[in-house]
Amino acid sequence: MHIRLSHAVIVATAAFAVSSCQTPDKAVMTTVAPPPDRIVAAENEPQNWLSHGRTYSEQRFSPLAAINSGNVAGLKLAWSYEFDTRRGQEATPLVVDGVMYTTSAWSKVQAIDAVTGKLLWQYDPEVPGESAVNGCCDVVNRGVAYWEGKLFVGTFDGRLIALDARTGAVLWSTLTVDPSKPYTITGAPRVVKGKVLIGNGGAELGVRGYISAYDARTGKMAWRFYTVPGEPGVKDGAASDAILEKLAGPTWKGEWWKLGGGGTVWDSMSYDPELDLLYVGVGNGSPWNAAIRSPGGGDNLFLSSIIALRPDTGEYVWHYQEVPGDQWDYTATQQMILADLMIDGKPRKVLMQAPKNGFFYVLDRETGKLISAEPFVKLNWASGVDLTTGRPNINPEARYNLTGKTWVAMPGSLGAHSWQSMSYSPQTGLVYIPTQEIGFPYISDPDYRHHKRGINLGVDLDAVSMPDDDAARKQIVDSAKGYLMAWDPVHQREMWRAPYLGPDNGGTLATAGGLVFEGDATGGFHAYDAGNGKELWSFPAQTGIIAAPITYSVGGKQYVTIVTGWGGIYALLGGEMALKTGRHPKIGRVLTFTLDGKASLPPTSAEPLTLFDIPRQFGTPAMIAEGKARYHRTCVGCHGDSAVSPGVLPDLRYSTAINDKDLWYSIVGDGALTSQGMVGFKADLSPEAIEAIRSYIISRTLRLPEAKKGS
Ligand code: CA
User: Which of 333, 188, 190, 206 is nearest to 265 (CA)?
Assistant: First the structure.
């Protein structure tokens, strides 16, 4: 073996020597292989955080151990940087050679000195305020990609922009979506083999999902892969054409393409350089209700699936569908961690995912074959997953569109685990999952029609809004839970959990210091012993945390960073449930910690809600009921269940506009506050409907204790 290898090396060297003698210098240069991508070898740069999940494996495990279970109790704030945006903050920052690159709400990009916290530059893509209505889940952004001195950001309005990492200057910008449709980008791009990969969101509103690859140097599109078929007989000229026709097309019925079908690739991607496979997580159907989306049934490939593609061409290699014919918003867009595990005495190359649906999946990432799937929370939509077919045994009662009854699902549409990143420690062999328990009652919308603006689910959100009865509401609020869970992926069992006050907590980071870091919805930032879950340190961050921490080092000193800022879907929609973890000050910051930190945060508190005028109720009970129904179909996604806002966007019960019919119409109908993101809805709502919503909001205002006191 040795002799053969040496022989090969000698032959190759000789051939190179001969060729270099006979060809000009320039040509020789081109025959030399380019240096490998830094990201491929990111494992060799523990001081940096080069890609969204640190490495292509998306493990979010750092080999740094200067901060460890023995000294983390002394961790202190080193610096803080305050964003100029006050919406939800979901970014995972990158750190490259002492410079931190992060994003904030509205897709702004910041370069920050990672040692001092000083802003080096900020880039604002000037996303129009009115594009906010195209998003399901706040104007968030989850971060940038870095490659060869360039940064890449996907903007909320669908652009992919390359920046010079030194200056923030725009190198190129390309529109990745049809601007006439409600597409948005909130996810972080990834760069694989010189191509920038980006998907988009919009399945709650009505779009067709895809992922695209762009040349990192020029911004020219290299390929696109649609995740669901288009209109039969119409070719896209995309990498997905053949497989959609052969495999996916026959699994759809009706005229799904008119609303798009969904299947958006809005967050997760992983890459295995050895297998040269790019893994893509695909989202839910559009609309949710399968009877409307694909009447007559069908698996609706590739909804709720993991797809493996060739990164050079977008060529399909394999897929695994977690929820055939999904209608519970059970996306497979949650993070996919690649690791090598010993399973039944054999080393296996696996892909792990803990998606919204509550099963923890372990797949063979070479073939896509299911190795195991077990519930990591209590769930009721399926009794298990058949390891031979890979299909879930779906509870017939869960099919609310067929039964015509309300189905209270566990998990609900917010999932047992959503985009908040989990992490995997090769030291402990455990996966650290930001876990939650929030049920959701699904019932078909009897009055379903397509809204030009806002959400299109085919599910009646009015029928399932919070009940009036105090005891019933308390029971629902109490039932919403959140905790950090340590999961053994080999034996598929829980090892420990650390409970929080409520759901929707931050992502996790595991380190070689024997630690797991996570922020929570109340604003606590915590470090736990990775082995047993004992809390070793915590810091009051003053506002809710939903983002994931990172760690890095500069000049041999280790730092831990978290982006703070309450927002996202739960904070917008959750009403009283989301208020369980507090009404937070509207601030967004980057917080960085070291063992010798000396900084502190200025005192901050939430702005108080003031009821200036007590409105007078008008309208019949029928009108108020009509307003309630309209509100929960059109307004609930931003202003909260039952008109209770947890604080990110205005609580309409306190709005002075409810006292004035004309002012109310100018905002809700005509869009007087469009630049602030509140577009007009007159295309979908008649003046009578808008007035009915006002009568409903007033009925809610009058239930406030301060309204009762003043009347
Ligand atoms: Ca969704």
Answer: 333
pLDDT, mean of residues 271-291:
97
Q: How confident is the model at residue 52 (pLDDT cuts 50, 70, 90)?
A: very high
**Distant-in-sequence, close-in-space partners of 98: CB < 8 Å, separation ≥ 6:** 113, 114, 115, 554
Dist. CA 417–CA 503, nearest whole Å: 10
Q: How far is the CA of 434 from the centre of ligand 1 (A)?
A: 18
The pLDDT of 252-274, averaged and rounded, is 97
List, for residues 498-523, the tens digit of each pLDDT value: 999 999 999 999 999 999 999 999 99
- Give dist(CA 203, CA 262) in Å, integer: 5
Q: Give the containing element (helix H, strand E) for 696.
A: helix 687-701
Residue 704 CA to ligand 1 center (angstroms) comes to 32
Which pLDDT value is given to residue 675?
85
Could you tell me if 588 and 87 are in contact, meaning their C-beta atoms sit under 8 angstroms apart? yes
Written in H, E and C, the secondary structure of 75-97 is CEEEEEEECCCCCCCCCCCEEEC
Spatial neighbors of 426 by CB under 8 A, at least 6 apart, are: 59, 61, 339
Q: How many angstroms does the Cα of residue 42 sit away from the middle of ligand 1?
A: 31
* Secondary structure class of 699 (helix, strand, coil): helix
Q: How far apart are CA 3 and CA 6, in angstroms?
A: 5
**Two tokens at 424?**
């995997």
Kindly report whether the peptide bond that precedes residue 302 is cis, defined as omega within 30 degrees of 0. Answer: yes
* Ligand 1 centroid, distance to 253 Cα (angstroms): 21
Strand order in the sheet with 508-511: 61-62, 508-511, 515-519, 524-529, 535-540
Q: DSSP characters for 336-361?
A: -EEEEEEETTEEEEEEEE--TTSEEE
Written as six digits, the tokens of 197 are: 């990969």
Q: In this predicted structure, what is the pLDDT of residue 33?
A: 63
Q: What is the spatial order of strands in the sheet that 305-309 belongs to?
A: 269-272, 277-281, 305-309, 316-321
Nearest to 203 by CA among 188, 181, 225, 224: 181
Assigned token pair, 230: 């288009």
Confidence at residue 94, expressed as pLDDT on a 0 to 100 scale:
98
Any idea how long the chain is?
711
Residue with tokens 């950090």: 484
Contact status, residue 206 vs residue 450, Cβ threshold 8 Å: yes
pTM over 0.90: yes
* Ligand 1 mean position, distance from CA 603 (Å): 36
Phi and psi at residue 433, to the nearest 5°: -110, 125
What is the per-residue pLDDT for 2? 36
Encoded tokens for 157: 């309005």
The catalytic site residues sit at: 329
SS3 600: coil
Mean pLDDT of 685-696: 97
Q: Which CATH class is domain 621-710?
A: mainly alpha
Task: Give one DSSP letter per residue of 407-438, joined into a string.
Answer: EEESS-TT-SS-SSPPEEETTTTEEEEEEEE-
**57 CA to middle of ligand 1, Å?**
24
pLDDT band per the 50, 70, 90 thresholds, residue 1: very low
Query: pLDDT tens, 588-645?
Result: 999 999 999 999 999 988 888 999 989 999 999 999 999 999 999 899 989 999 999 9
Tell me the per-residue pLDDT of 420-478, one tens digit each, with 9 for 90 and over: 999 999 999 999 999 999 999 999 998 898 888 888 999 999 888 999 899 999 999 99
- pLDDT for res 31: 52
Please list, in sequence order, all residues whose beta carbon lies within 8 angstroms of the beta carbon of residue 203, skipping any fewer than 6 positions away.
136, 209, 260, 262, 263, 264, 266, 283, 284, 285, 286
Q: How remote is the CA of residue 473 from the centroid of ligand 1, in Å?
A: 25
Rounded to whole angstroms, the maximal C-alpha distance in the chain is 97
Q: Is it the case that residue 16 has pLDDT exceeding 50?
A: no
CA distance 679 to 180: 15
The per-residue pLDDT of the chain, averaged, comes to 93
